[in-house]
Amino acid sequence: MRVGTDGPMLIEGPVEVTLPDGSVVRSDRFTVAVCLCGRSARYPWCDTSHRRRPPRSRRGAGPE
User: Fold this and answer.
1) In contact, 21 and 59? CB cutoff 8 Å
2) Longest CA–CA separation in the chain, Å
3) Cα–Cα distance between 44 and 14 in angstroms, integer?
4) How far is the C-alpha of 11 from the C-alpha of 31, rounded, in Å?
5) What's in the keyword line of the UniProt record (predicted)?
6) How many CB atoms lie within 10 A of CB 52?
7) Average pLDDT of 37-56?
8) 2-36 tens-digit pLDDT
9) How confident is residue 62, by pLDDT bands cut at 50, 70 and 90?
10) Smallest Cα–Cα separation from 33: which of 20, 52, 48?
11) What secondary structure, in 3-state letters, does the chain show?
12) Residues 6 or more apart in contact with residue 57 via CB below 8 angstroms
């Protein structure tokens, strides 16, 4: 696993992620980019939105 300061968490696949609503999503790719910023339209997978959109609170996080 590799975590960058401005981007996603890279995990060797396959990967299963349990979302806050209890649903499970799976990727069979060799390397999976998991969104840490909460801006991805493909959440929980990274779509590089962290590069072009203003910051937003992480999905599933409570009020700050």
Assistant:
1) no
2) 35
3) 14
4) 6
5) 2Fe-2S, Iron, Iron-sulfur, Metal-binding
6) 8
7) 80
8) 666 667 889 998 999 998 899 999 999 999 999 88
9) very low
10) 48
11) CEECCCCCEEEECCEEEECCCCCEEEECCCEEEECCCCCCCCCCECCCHHHCCCCCCCCCCCCC
12) 38, 64
* Block residue for tokens 């339209």: 41
The tokens for 35 are: 């969104």
Residue matched to tokens 């995990």: 11
Residue 6 to residue 55: CA distance in whole angstroms: 11
Q: Looking at this protein, which amino acid is placed at residue 7?
A: G
The two structure tokens encoding residue 36: 């840490």
Cβ atoms of 51 and 35 within 8 Å: the answer is: no
